[in-house]
Amino acid sequence: MENLAISITDLRYAYPNGGLALKGVSFQIQQGECVGLIGPNGAGKTTLLFHLNGIFQSRNGTVKILGNKVCKDSVKHIRKEVGLVFQDPDDQLFMPTVFDDVAFGPINLGYDKVKVQQRVDQALCWMGMQGFDKRSPHQLSIGQKKRIAIASVLSMDPKILVLDEPTSNLDPRGKWDLIELLQDLPMTKVIASHDMEMIQSLCQRTLIMANGQITADDLTEIILSDNQLLRQYDLAR
Ligand code: ADP
What is the mean predicted confidence (pLDDT) over 35-62? Predict the structure, then answer.
């Protein structure tokens, strides 16, 4: 039990003007696991990811991160533990320079200049983006922007990294470069994607989500080799 990174029990969530987006989601992820989350559009993947760092907090069901329940009082601490990378880097990057974006988190944590610089250097190094600190994020390619968006989360030194469609819009070279960089990150990872090649390369375990529920949870090789299962959820031809 003490090795659990994420524990979710019977999580339900309804958007104010919508129907139920999560309909009783339960699963656990051990520390150090890299877990894929796949499912058709509208399945509830993004809604689920938003619960992992407290952007959404549901009163129905529980989300525990490293043993701590996500709630109003814990959310500041939870945001330090869980780094959430949005699908669109333009939703994440808002500062004039790469340095400012990657330093934003550590500065907010109150770290001194030396520690902020260390965190920025380490995060840029993890993403292979050393030397880009003075550039404007908005003048970078989509692949570079994605890496800076991930670096801006890694600079908080999260224990859990949550990625929403990290390879979307990348060309094959950019995609495989990113996969290699992600492979070297040691923390627990949850990756929502339609990119089965990436899921196969990075994730030992995969969850299928459909219609607000987890409908399969198994080794990635078992899930991805079951064409009938994939077709059932519009994940294969
Ligand atoms: P996925 O990430 O798997 O594509 P989402 O979590 O985005 O799925 O959406 C799950 C369900 O919630 C869908 O039915 C979607 O229409 C609905 N939904 C998503 N965002 C909103 C919103 N802001 N307001 C109302 N309904 C929403």
Answer: 96
